Description:
Order of helices and strands: HHHEEHEEEEHEEEEEEEEEEE
Largest sheet: 10 strands, antiparallel, barrel
Amino acid sequence: MKKTLLALTLTILSPLLFAQAPAAGPATTEAGKLAQAREDAYTAAFNRADLKALGDLYEEDVQFTTDDGALISGRQAVIDGLAKYFAKSKGAKLEIAVEAARLLTPDVLAENGFSTVVSAQGNRDVTRYAMTYVKKGDHWLIAQIDESAPPPADAAAQALGELAWMVGSWKDESPTLTVETKVAWTKSNHFLRRSFSVTRAGSNTIEGTEIIGYDPVAGHLRSWVFDSEGGFGESTWRQEGNKWLTNVKATAPDGGQSTSQHVITRIDDNKYTWESVNRTHNGEVLPNLDRIEVVRVP
């Protein structure tokens, strides 16, 4: 259910805390010190429904875009929304989880994270936000707020569920190359594990493992692969109908860098095709690999 404009205003206003830099901690960076001071001030004002104190934290022409694209312009419009919200949501409290903050210039601070409003009944309303602050005199003021809804709790299950057909054992065999793959769920079904072996005529068998999971920040699947020769790589996955496109970046044991796009096309529950296109190695363009057919092992 979409949040009301007033509730959206309320949740996004909360992030007035200037966050610490992720690697360092709030007490050791300039952005972190600002974060702590603003976090204390804003949370205290919000939790006592102090509209004047909250209004002092906004620039006169602040721009706030909600997760459904609505635009609230100006400090007074924001405060009016808060006033109405407080009138009908007495006892609401604010919680903040800041992901990152950094000074773009000495007078401009960018921050992103999650804000949560907890109602008197214990209901939690979570919003992802990105904010920009400007320094006016001795004060840091909110200049811009962009809100987006966080991914649903079952987003990972939905995304990975589109690959559930792949669970099982698979084999591709040609005159010179045999590839065997086994796909299984990890505990709690949060990841898929692909174990593979590649046997080429006249060469040692190469084995490897790929872990496929959902990236809630990027909103898509990612995977990480490691092979027995010491190579490793990372891929992003995108679905187009019955096809999966994976953009791959790989590092060879000797440090060589490769990129490619793999195309996995599902034919049915027992067959799919695989091909590799747009291939490069250390900046040199390589030819595409022919499409191969992979079948399920009964």
